[in-house]
Amino acid sequence: MKDLAFEESHGSQRRERITILIAGGGGFLGSHLCEKLLGEGNRIICVDNFQTGSRRNVAPFIENPDFSLIEQDVCIPLKIKEPVNQIYNMACAASPPSYQQNPIHTLMTNIIGAKNLLDLARRKGARILQSSTSEIYGDPEIPLQVESYNGNVNTCGPRACYDEGKRAAETLFWEYNELYGVQTRVARIFNTYGPRMHPKDGRVVSNFIVQALEGENLTIYGDGSQTRSFCFVSDMVDGLVRLMASNETMPVNIGNPDEFTILDLAKIVQRKTLTRSRIEFTSLPKDDPRQRRPDIGRAAAVLDWAPKVSLDEGLDHMIAWFREELIGPRLTDALVQ
Asked: Which DSSP string do the residues of 267-282 spell out, in sequence order?
Protein backbone atom coordinates (compact mmCIF):
# COMPACT_ATOMS: atom_id res chain seq x y z
CA MET A 1 0.00 0.00 0.00
CA LYS A 2 1.37 3.42 -0.98
CA ASP A 3 0.94 6.61 1.00
CA LEU A 4 0.05 10.13 -0.16
CA ALA A 5 3.69 11.24 -0.35
CA PHE A 6 4.33 8.48 -2.89
CA GLU A 7 1.36 9.49 -5.01
CA GLU A 8 2.33 13.16 -4.92
CA SER A 9 5.96 12.54 -5.84
CA HIS A 10 5.15 10.21 -8.74
CA GLY A 11 1.73 11.44 -9.83
CA SER A 12 0.36 14.70 -11.12
CA GLN A 13 0.73 16.61 -7.84
CA ARG A 14 4.10 18.00 -6.79
CA ARG A 15 5.48 16.95 -3.44
CA GLU A 16 6.02 19.61 -0.80
CA ARG A 17 9.59 20.92 -0.54
CA ILE A 18 11.45 19.15 2.26
CA THR A 19 14.95 18.98 3.77
CA ILE A 20 16.82 15.76 3.02
CA LEU A 21 20.14 14.67 4.54
CA ILE A 22 22.20 12.30 2.40
CA ALA A 23 25.09 10.63 4.21
CA GLY A 24 27.63 9.53 1.64
CA GLY A 25 26.24 12.06 -0.81
CA GLY A 26 29.64 12.55 -2.45
CA GLY A 27 29.78 8.94 -3.59
CA PHE A 28 28.76 7.36 -6.87
CA LEU A 29 25.19 6.50 -5.90
CA GLY A 30 24.79 9.25 -3.29
CA SER A 31 25.66 12.04 -5.74
CA HIS A 32 23.05 10.80 -8.23
CA LEU A 33 20.54 10.85 -5.38
CA CYS A 34 21.57 14.43 -4.52
CA GLU A 35 21.08 15.44 -8.15
CA LYS A 36 17.62 13.90 -8.44
CA LEU A 37 16.28 15.25 -5.14
CA LEU A 38 17.73 18.72 -5.74
CA GLY A 39 16.07 18.70 -9.13
CA GLU A 40 12.73 18.10 -7.41
CA GLY A 41 13.16 21.36 -5.49
CA ASN A 42 14.25 19.96 -2.13
CA ARG A 43 16.86 21.27 0.29
CA ILE A 44 19.81 18.86 0.45
CA ILE A 45 22.37 18.42 3.23
CA CYS A 46 25.23 16.26 1.94
CA VAL A 47 27.48 14.58 4.53
CA ASP A 48 30.66 12.87 3.36
CA ASN A 49 34.20 12.32 4.63
CA PHE A 50 35.36 11.67 1.03
CA GLN A 51 37.08 8.44 1.93
CA THR A 52 35.77 6.98 -1.32
CA GLY A 53 33.47 9.78 -2.51
CA SER A 54 34.66 12.61 -4.72
CA ARG A 55 34.32 16.37 -4.47
CA ARG A 56 33.97 16.37 -8.25
CA ASN A 57 30.69 14.47 -7.86
CA VAL A 58 29.11 17.30 -5.87
CA ALA A 59 30.93 20.22 -7.52
CA PRO A 60 27.94 21.03 -9.80
CA PHE A 61 25.73 21.52 -6.73
CA ILE A 62 27.99 23.69 -4.56
CA GLU A 63 26.65 27.02 -5.84
CA ASN A 64 23.05 25.88 -5.43
CA PRO A 65 21.57 27.69 -2.39
CA ASP A 66 19.50 24.59 -1.62
CA PHE A 67 22.64 22.45 -1.24
CA SER A 68 25.03 22.38 1.70
CA LEU A 69 28.04 20.16 2.33
CA ILE A 70 29.25 18.85 5.68
CA GLU A 71 32.63 17.12 5.52
CA GLN A 72 32.42 14.61 8.36
CA ASP A 73 32.64 10.93 9.16
CA VAL A 74 29.26 9.49 10.18
CA CYS A 75 31.00 7.62 13.01
CA ILE A 76 30.99 11.05 14.70
CA PRO A 77 27.50 12.17 15.81
CA LEU A 78 26.06 14.87 13.57
CA LYS A 79 24.94 18.20 15.01
CA ILE A 80 22.23 19.52 12.70
CA LYS A 81 20.29 22.52 13.96
CA GLU A 82 17.71 22.85 11.19
CA PRO A 83 14.71 20.54 10.72
CA VAL A 84 15.32 17.38 8.68
CA ASN A 85 12.49 15.44 7.04
CA GLN A 86 14.32 12.53 5.45
CA ILE A 87 17.71 10.84 5.82
CA TYR A 88 19.37 8.53 3.31
CA ASN A 89 22.24 6.49 4.75
CA MET A 90 24.48 5.89 1.75
CA ALA A 91 27.70 6.09 3.77
CA CYS A 92 30.22 3.26 3.45
CA ALA A 93 32.72 2.09 0.88
CA ALA A 94 30.93 -0.43 -1.34
CA SER A 95 33.65 -2.14 -3.39
CA PRO A 96 35.79 -4.91 -1.82
CA PRO A 97 39.17 -3.23 -2.51
CA SER A 98 37.92 -0.07 -0.76
CA TYR A 99 36.16 -1.54 2.26
CA GLN A 100 38.92 -4.09 2.86
CA GLN A 101 41.58 -1.35 3.20
CA ASN A 102 40.31 -0.55 6.70
CA PRO A 103 37.92 -3.33 7.72
CA ILE A 104 37.44 -2.09 11.29
CA HIS A 105 36.41 1.34 10.04
CA THR A 106 34.07 -0.31 7.51
CA LEU A 107 32.40 -2.25 10.30
CA MET A 108 32.11 0.84 12.51
CA THR A 109 30.73 2.93 9.64
CA ASN A 110 28.00 0.37 9.12
CA ILE A 111 27.13 0.03 12.81
CA ILE A 112 28.13 3.21 14.68
CA GLY A 113 27.40 5.38 11.64
CA ALA A 114 23.95 3.84 11.25
CA LYS A 115 23.22 4.34 14.95
CA ASN A 116 24.27 7.99 14.81
CA LEU A 117 21.96 8.61 11.86
CA LEU A 118 19.11 6.72 13.52
CA ASP A 119 19.54 8.85 16.64
CA LEU A 120 19.40 11.95 14.44
CA ALA A 121 16.25 10.66 12.74
CA ARG A 122 14.70 10.02 16.14
CA ARG A 123 15.50 13.53 17.35
CA LYS A 124 14.22 15.17 14.17
CA GLY A 125 11.20 12.95 13.63
CA ALA A 126 12.64 12.13 10.19
CA ARG A 127 12.10 9.13 7.98
CA ILE A 128 15.36 7.27 7.33
CA LEU A 129 16.45 4.83 4.62
CA GLN A 130 19.31 2.37 4.96
CA SER A 131 21.26 1.44 1.84
CA SER A 132 21.76 -2.22 2.62
CA THR A 133 23.12 -4.68 0.10
CA SER A 134 22.69 -7.98 -1.68
CA GLU A 135 25.89 -8.96 0.15
CA ILE A 136 23.81 -9.71 3.25
CA TYR A 137 22.83 -12.92 1.40
CA GLY A 138 26.50 -13.96 1.27
CA ASP A 139 27.20 -16.84 -1.11
CA PRO A 140 23.54 -17.79 -1.61
CA GLU A 141 22.31 -21.36 -1.62
CA ILE A 142 19.19 -20.45 -3.62
CA PRO A 143 19.19 -19.26 -7.26
CA LEU A 144 16.78 -16.34 -6.74
CA GLN A 145 17.36 -14.24 -3.63
CA VAL A 146 14.10 -13.27 -1.92
CA GLU A 147 13.94 -10.99 1.14
CA SER A 148 12.88 -13.87 3.42
CA TYR A 149 16.15 -15.73 2.72
CA ASN A 150 18.46 -15.39 5.74
CA GLY A 151 21.68 -15.72 3.77
CA ASN A 152 24.93 -17.66 3.89
CA VAL A 153 27.58 -15.26 5.18
CA ASN A 154 31.03 -16.13 6.47
CA THR A 155 31.59 -14.09 9.66
CA CYS A 156 35.37 -14.65 9.59
CA GLY A 157 36.47 -13.72 6.10
CA PRO A 158 37.74 -10.74 4.08
CA ARG A 159 34.21 -9.64 3.11
CA ALA A 160 32.71 -10.03 6.60
CA CYS A 161 33.39 -6.44 7.67
CA TYR A 162 31.01 -5.24 4.98
CA ASP A 163 28.52 -8.11 4.86
CA GLU A 164 28.08 -8.44 8.62
CA GLY A 165 28.20 -4.68 9.12
CA LYS A 166 25.26 -4.27 6.76
CA ARG A 167 23.37 -7.11 8.45
CA ALA A 168 23.91 -5.49 11.86
CA ALA A 169 22.72 -2.15 10.49
CA GLU A 170 19.50 -3.77 9.30
CA THR A 171 18.96 -5.04 12.85
CA LEU A 172 19.49 -1.54 14.22
CA PHE A 173 16.93 -0.15 11.79
CA TRP A 174 14.45 -2.84 12.79
CA GLU A 175 14.89 -2.17 16.51
CA TYR A 176 14.63 1.62 16.17
CA ASN A 177 11.37 1.12 14.33
CA GLU A 178 10.04 -1.39 16.87
CA LEU A 179 11.23 0.34 20.07
CA TYR A 180 11.10 4.03 19.18
CA GLY A 181 8.72 4.24 16.25
CA VAL A 182 11.36 5.70 13.91
CA GLN A 183 10.12 5.49 10.31
CA THR A 184 12.76 3.21 8.82
CA ARG A 185 13.17 1.89 5.29
CA VAL A 186 15.73 -0.73 4.14
CA ALA A 187 16.85 -1.18 0.53
CA ARG A 188 18.87 -4.26 -0.37
CA ILE A 189 20.84 -2.91 -3.31
CA PHE A 190 22.08 -5.27 -6.03
CA ASN A 191 25.07 -4.48 -8.25
CA THR A 192 24.67 -0.91 -9.48
CA TYR A 193 26.71 0.71 -12.25
CA GLY A 194 26.79 3.94 -14.23
CA PRO A 195 28.56 7.28 -14.72
CA ARG A 196 30.58 8.67 -11.77
CA MET A 197 31.95 5.31 -10.73
CA HIS A 198 35.63 5.81 -9.95
CA PRO A 199 37.98 4.32 -12.59
CA LYS A 200 39.70 2.39 -9.79
CA ASP A 201 36.46 1.49 -8.01
CA GLY A 202 37.30 -2.21 -8.17
CA ARG A 203 33.87 -3.53 -9.14
CA VAL A 204 33.51 -5.69 -12.19
CA VAL A 205 31.72 -3.35 -14.62
CA SER A 206 34.09 -0.44 -14.10
CA ASN A 207 37.09 -2.80 -14.06
CA PHE A 208 36.24 -4.30 -17.44
CA ILE A 209 35.47 -0.98 -19.11
CA VAL A 210 38.62 0.74 -17.84
CA GLN A 211 40.80 -2.25 -18.74
CA ALA A 212 39.29 -2.37 -22.24
CA LEU A 213 39.74 1.36 -22.86
CA GLU A 214 43.30 1.23 -21.51
CA GLY A 215 44.18 -1.72 -23.75
CA GLU A 216 44.77 -4.02 -20.80
CA ASN A 217 43.55 -7.59 -20.50
CA LEU A 218 40.14 -8.02 -18.90
CA THR A 219 40.71 -9.79 -15.59
CA ILE A 220 38.20 -12.47 -14.60
CA TYR A 221 38.38 -14.02 -11.16
CA GLY A 222 37.70 -17.75 -11.32
CA ASP A 223 36.33 -19.28 -14.51
CA GLY A 224 33.75 -16.53 -15.13
CA SER A 225 30.74 -18.78 -14.56
CA GLN A 226 29.67 -16.82 -11.48
CA THR A 227 26.69 -14.57 -12.16
CA ARG A 228 25.64 -11.01 -11.34
CA SER A 229 22.57 -8.88 -12.01
CA PHE A 230 23.40 -5.29 -12.99
CA CYS A 231 21.14 -2.31 -12.28
CA PHE A 232 21.73 1.05 -13.96
CA VAL A 233 22.07 3.97 -11.56
CA SER A 234 18.96 5.88 -12.71
CA ASP A 235 16.79 2.83 -12.05
CA MET A 236 18.36 2.36 -8.63
CA VAL A 237 17.83 5.98 -7.60
CA ASP A 238 14.20 5.78 -8.71
CA GLY A 239 13.73 2.67 -6.58
CA LEU A 240 15.30 4.27 -3.52
CA VAL A 241 13.12 7.39 -3.79
CA ARG A 242 10.00 5.27 -4.19
CA LEU A 243 10.93 3.17 -1.17
CA MET A 244 11.50 6.26 0.97
CA ALA A 245 8.05 7.53 0.00
CA SER A 246 6.31 4.21 0.67
CA ASN A 247 4.88 2.68 3.86
CA GLU A 248 7.07 -0.45 3.58
CA THR A 249 9.15 -1.09 6.72
CA MET A 250 10.49 -4.54 5.73
CA PRO A 251 13.65 -4.85 3.57
CA VAL A 252 13.11 -4.54 -0.19
CA ASN A 253 15.38 -5.92 -2.92
CA ILE A 254 16.17 -3.28 -5.55
CA GLY A 255 18.04 -4.54 -8.57
CA ASN A 256 17.74 -5.83 -12.10
CA PRO A 257 16.77 -9.53 -12.22
CA ASP A 258 18.43 -10.06 -15.61
CA GLU A 259 21.32 -12.40 -14.86
CA PHE A 260 24.67 -12.54 -16.68
CA THR A 261 27.83 -14.55 -16.14
CA ILE A 262 31.00 -12.57 -15.60
CA LEU A 263 32.39 -14.11 -18.78
CA ASP A 264 29.34 -12.91 -20.71
CA LEU A 265 29.85 -9.39 -19.34
CA ALA A 266 33.51 -9.39 -20.38
CA LYS A 267 32.60 -10.41 -23.94
CA ILE A 268 29.92 -7.70 -24.17
CA VAL A 269 32.43 -5.05 -23.04
CA GLN A 270 34.98 -6.33 -25.56
CA ARG A 271 32.44 -5.99 -28.35
CA LYS A 272 31.18 -2.55 -27.33
CA THR A 273 34.62 -1.00 -26.83
CA LEU A 274 36.15 -2.62 -29.95
CA THR A 275 39.13 -3.43 -27.79
CA ARG A 276 41.93 -5.81 -28.68
CA SER A 277 42.22 -6.72 -25.03
CA ARG A 278 42.04 -10.40 -24.25
CA ILE A 279 40.36 -12.12 -21.33
CA GLU A 280 42.69 -13.23 -18.56
CA PHE A 281 41.67 -15.63 -15.80
CA THR A 282 43.02 -15.50 -12.26
CA SER A 283 42.22 -17.09 -8.91
CA LEU A 284 38.82 -16.49 -7.30
CA PRO A 285 38.95 -14.38 -4.08
CA LYS A 286 37.76 -16.00 -0.87
CA ASP A 287 33.99 -15.79 -0.24
CA ASP A 288 33.29 -14.31 -3.68
CA PRO A 289 29.59 -15.07 -4.30
CA ARG A 290 28.85 -17.58 -7.05
CA GLN A 291 25.48 -16.10 -7.92
CA ARG A 292 23.45 -12.89 -7.60
CA ARG A 293 19.88 -12.48 -8.82
CA PRO A 294 17.19 -10.54 -6.96
CA ASP A 295 13.57 -11.46 -6.57
CA ILE A 296 11.93 -8.03 -7.05
CA GLY A 297 8.36 -9.12 -6.43
CA ARG A 298 8.09 -6.99 -3.29
CA ALA A 299 9.44 -3.90 -5.06
CA ALA A 300 6.94 -4.41 -7.87
CA ALA A 301 4.04 -4.87 -5.45
CA VAL A 302 4.69 -2.10 -2.92
CA LEU A 303 6.65 0.42 -5.00
CA ASP A 304 5.26 -0.18 -8.47
CA TRP A 305 8.93 -0.35 -9.49
CA ALA A 306 10.86 -2.29 -12.09
CA PRO A 307 14.13 -1.45 -13.87
CA LYS A 308 13.84 0.19 -17.29
CA VAL A 309 17.44 0.36 -18.54
CA SER A 310 18.88 -2.78 -20.13
CA LEU A 311 22.50 -3.77 -19.62
CA ASP A 312 23.11 -3.10 -23.31
CA GLU A 313 21.87 0.49 -23.04
CA GLY A 314 23.45 1.14 -19.66
CA LEU A 315 26.88 -0.01 -20.80
CA ASP A 316 26.72 2.39 -23.74
CA HIS A 317 26.19 5.31 -21.33
CA MET A 318 28.91 4.14 -19.00
CA ILE A 319 31.49 3.47 -21.72
CA ALA A 320 30.89 6.94 -23.18
CA TRP A 321 31.37 8.50 -19.75
CA PHE A 322 34.58 6.57 -19.07
CA ARG A 323 35.97 7.51 -22.49
CA GLU A 324 35.57 11.15 -21.51
CA GLU A 325 37.04 10.55 -18.05
CA LEU A 326 40.06 8.60 -19.24
CA ILE A 327 40.81 10.23 -22.59
CA GLY A 328 39.49 13.76 -22.07
CA PRO A 329 42.02 14.77 -19.38
CA ARG A 330 44.89 13.45 -21.52
CA LEU A 331 43.78 15.50 -24.51
CA THR A 332 43.56 18.56 -22.28
CA ASP A 333 47.08 17.94 -20.91
CA ALA A 334 48.44 17.50 -24.42
CA LEU A 335 46.91 20.80 -25.56
CA VAL A 336 48.39 22.59 -22.52
CA GLN A 337 51.85 21.22 -23.27
From this structure: HHHHHHHT--PPEEEE
